[in-house]
Write a structure and sequence with these properties.
347 residues, Quinone Oxidoreductase, Chain A, domain 1, 17 strands, alpha/beta, six-stranded parallel sheet, globular, binds zinc ion, binds NADP nicotinamide-adenine-dinucleotide phosphate, seven-stranded mixed sheet, Rossmann fold
Length: 347
C-alpha cells in the first residue's frame, strides 16, 4: 500500500482540501503511475457538488490523468517504467457484456469502475487523479503520443474522447457543417478535432469575446447565442450540432439550426432535465442523440489522431491551492480552455 498526497472534497458544499489517499499494491495486471498533470473537467464540479445525485465523500476527483509509469505488474506487457501514459474516466469494466465486447466499456451493462467514486473490486471506493500516484489495471492505461506535452495531453483523456467519439460517429468530415455550442474544455477540443477531420466548423458561444481564439482553433465562423438574430441567420445550416454546455439550454433553438435529417448530439450534462418539441423533430427527421466519453480502443485511436495532427488542449496550469478558485472560474465560463493541475504542488 502506498499513501500519497491528494486533494479531496469532504462534502457537497465545502471547498476541496489537502489529504492523502491509499493506493493498492501493484498486482500482476496493475500499473503504478506517477501523475504529472490532471485536468479539471466540469464533471468534477457536478460530482463534487452531488449535482448528479448523492456522491460518496471524501472524494478525490480527476479523470484527465497524464503521467509516467513507475512500476508494472508481472503480467503487464503493454507498458514499462518510464513510459508516458494516460488514464481517463474508467479504470475497469466487466469485459463480458455486449457493450464491453464491442469496445464500448463506457456503456458496460454490469457497471464499469469509474476512476473516482466507484466501488472497486476490493470494496473500496476509487479515488481520482487530483493526486500524485494511481494504480490502474493495464487494460485501462492509454499510451500518450510523443508529440504532445503531458499537460496539453491530459484533457484529451476526457474532453478529447468525449468530443472525438460523437464527431466520428455522426460523420464530421469534408463537406459537413458542424456547430460547436460552448467554447470551454470540451468545446475547444471539439473545434480542433472537427477541423482536423475536415469539417467546416462554426462556434456558438454566449458572447463574441473568445472569437479570435475560436477562429485560431479552426472555426470558420463564430456567433453569439445571446443574439436572437444568430438563430434566424443560421436556421437549417448544419449537418451536426454538438452541445457541450454544462447548463440548461433551449434544445429547440439548436434543433432549428439543423438541416433535414441533421443531428443534435448532447454531451453537456446539466443536472436538470431538458425538453424538446417532438413534433418538430419528426417533421424534419432530426436526430437527438447523447454520447458518453468513448471506449478504451477509441480513446487510443483519438490519442493517436491528436498526436498525428498536433492537437493538444490549450491549458492554464494551476497549483493545487488554486483548485477551488479554478472551479469558480469554470462556473463563470472564465477558462481558456482547460485548467490543469500541476501535481508536484500537491506534496
Ligand atoms: P466548461 O469548460 O465549463 O465549458 C462549458 C461551456 O459551456 C462554457 O465554457 C460556456 O461556453 C458554456 N456555458 C456555460 N454555462 C452556460 C450557460 N448558462 N448558458 C450557455 N452556455 C453556457 O465545461 P466542460 O468541462 O467542457 O464540460 C461541459 C459539460 O460536458 C459538463 O456538463 C460536463 O459534465 C459534461 N461532460 C460530459 C461528458 C460526456 O461523456 N458526455 C464528458 C465530459 C464532460 P461559452 O463561454 O463559449 O458560452
Ligand atoms: Zn470529464
Ligand atoms: Zn461490461
Amino acid at each position: 500500500m502506498l499513501t500519497v498526497p491528494a486533494y479531496a472534497a469532504t462534502s457537497a458544499t465545502e471547498p476541496l482540501t489537502p489529504t492523502t489517499v491509499e493506493r493498492r499494491d501493484v498486482g500482476p495486471h496493475d500499473v503504478l503511475i506517477e501523475i504529472k498533470y490532471v485536468g479539471i473537467c466540469h464533471s468534477d464540479i457536478h460530482n463534487v457538488r452531488s449535482e448528479w445525485g448523492p456522491a460518496s465523500y471524501p472524494m478525490v476527483p480527476g479523470h484527465e490523468i497524464a503521467g509516467v509509469v513507475v512500476e508494472v505488474g508481472s503480467e503487464v506487457t503493454g507498458c514499462a517504467p518510464g513510459d508516458r501514459v494516460g488514464v481517463g474516466c474508467m479504470v475497469n469494466s466487466c469485459r463480458v457484456c455486449e457493450p464491453c465486447l464491442r469496445g464500448e466499456e463506457q456503456y458496460c451493462l454490469n457497471g464499469n469502475t469509474l476512476t473516482y467514486g466507484s466501488v472497486d473490486e476490493d470494496g473500496t471506493v476509487t479515488q481520482g487523479g487530483y493526486s500524485t500516484h494511481v494504480v490502474v489495471n493495464d487494460d485501462f492505461v492509454l499510451r500518450l503520443p510523443g508529440t504532445l506535452a503531458l499537460d496539453e495531453a491530459a484533457p484529451l483523456l476526457c474532453a478529447g474522447i468525449t468530443t472525438y467519439s460523437p464527431l466520428r460517429r455522426w460523420g464530421a468530415g469534408p463537406g459537413k457543417k458542424v456547430a460547436v455550442v460552448g467554447l470551454g474544455g470540451l468545446g475547444h477540443l471539439a473545434v480542433k478535432i472537427a477541423h482536423a477531420l475536415g469539417a467546416e466548423v462554426t462556434v456558438l458561444s454566449q458572447s463574441l469575446k473568445k472569437m479570435d481564439d475560436g477562429l485560431r482553433l479552426g472555426a470558420r465562423e463564430y456567433f453569439a447565442t445571446s443574439d436572437p438574430a444568430t438563430f434566424e441567420r443560421l436556421a437549417g445550416a448544419f449537418d451536426l450540432v454538438v452541445n457541450t454546455v454544462s447548463a440548461r439550454v433551449d434544445l429547440d433553438s439548436y434543433l432549428g439550426l439543423l438541416k433535414p435529417g441533421g443531428v443534435l448530439v448532447n454531451v453537456g450534462a446539466p443536472p436538470e432535465a431538458l425538453s424538446l418539441n417532438v413534433f418538430s423533430l419528426i417533421m424534419h427527421g432530426h436526430i437527438f442523440a447523447g454520447s458518453l466519453i468513448g471506449g478504451i480502443r477509441e480513446t487510443q485511436e483519438m490519442l493517436d489522431f491528436c498526436g498525428a495532427h498536433g492537437i493538444g488542449a490549450e491549458v492554464e496550469i494551476v497549483p493545487a491551492a488554486k483548485i477551488n478558485e479554478a472551479f469558480e472560474r469554470m462556473l463563470a465560463s472564465d477558462v481558456r480552455y482547460r485548467f490543469v493541475i500541476d501535481t508536484s504542488t500537491l506534496t
